[in-house]
Write a structure and sequence with these properties.
The chain has eight helices and nine strands. With about 230 residues, it is α/β, with parallel strands linked by helices. It has one domain. Strand 7 and strand 8 form a beta hairpin. The chain is globular and about 50 Å long.
């Protein structure tokens, strides 16, 4: 009994130390530099970016949307948008803390919260940020999925902020797929990576639940072909 208690206490102490290390500025800095360097090996091709960038420069609000599976492939190019002071919603988990710190290095504001925890307040902050800076991004299936299912938050965010939605699609020549809920995609070094921006989508605000659901399904269908599992 005593040995078991000591073992549990030691395991907890190790976890605390590990958490502190993984969220330390030093670790985050080196992890971010590694990811950026790794991403620069990709032979990146960006398509259909001009339309929404021109719209943004003319004062329109833009909400970029991507699947959780594919956001790693976007990190390198997303750094180019830091001049717009953009925002993205990141979960309150430990992994989310690491990602949020790296977002800061990449020039993005991390608004903490998700559909499972702190989502309502995070959505309010995202709306405020998007109205102010006119650019934000959203991971449409959240931090836990289910995979390929667009959650309603992105539609609400677009409605209230009067933003157009721009879907992002990613296709990769060679990649590894993790054994995770979304089959997370990691392009192999020196692989061709295509980053495509879809046509701008403008949904009219509505209080009708059926119309709202139809809009959510429409976005899901538009983005669905990009999913690779």
């Amino acid at each position: 009994m005593i040995n078991s208690t000591i073992s549990i206490a030691m395991d907890k102490a190790v976890r605390i130390k590990l958490d502190r290390f993984l969220t330390s500025e030093l670790f985050i800095f080196f992890l971010y530099r590694f990811i950026l360097t790794y991403s620069w090996t990709f032979r990146l091709k960006v398509e259909n970016e001009k339309e929404w960038v021109d719209y943004l420069k003319n004062g329109g609000a833009v909400l970029l949307c991507v699947w959780h599976q594919q956001f790693f492939s976007v990190i390198r190019h997303a750094k180019n948008y830091k001049i717009y002071n953009p925002s993205i919603m990141i979960s309150l988990s430990r992994d989310g803390e690491i990602v949020a710190r790296m977002c800061k290095h990449n020039g993005w504001n991390a608004v903490r919260g998700s559909s499972s925890r702190g989502g309502r307040e995070a959505l309010k902050k995202m709306i405020t940020k998007l109205k102010e800076t006119k650019l934000a991004a959203h991971i449409v299936d959240g931090p836990k999925g289910p995979s390929g299912k667009v959650k309603p938050g992105v539609i609400r965010l677009a409605h209230v902020s009067n933003a157009v939605i721009v879907p992002i699609s990613v296709s990769v020549e060679k990649a590894w797929y993790f054994n995770s809920w979304d089959k997370f995609l990691l392009p192999k070094p020196f692989s061709k990576v295509r980053l495509g921006f879809g046509k701008m989508i403008k949904f009219d605000g509505t209080k009708d639940k059926e119309i709202f659901e139809a809009q959510r399904k429409q976005l899901e269908e538009i983005m669905h072909p990009s999913i690779k599992v």
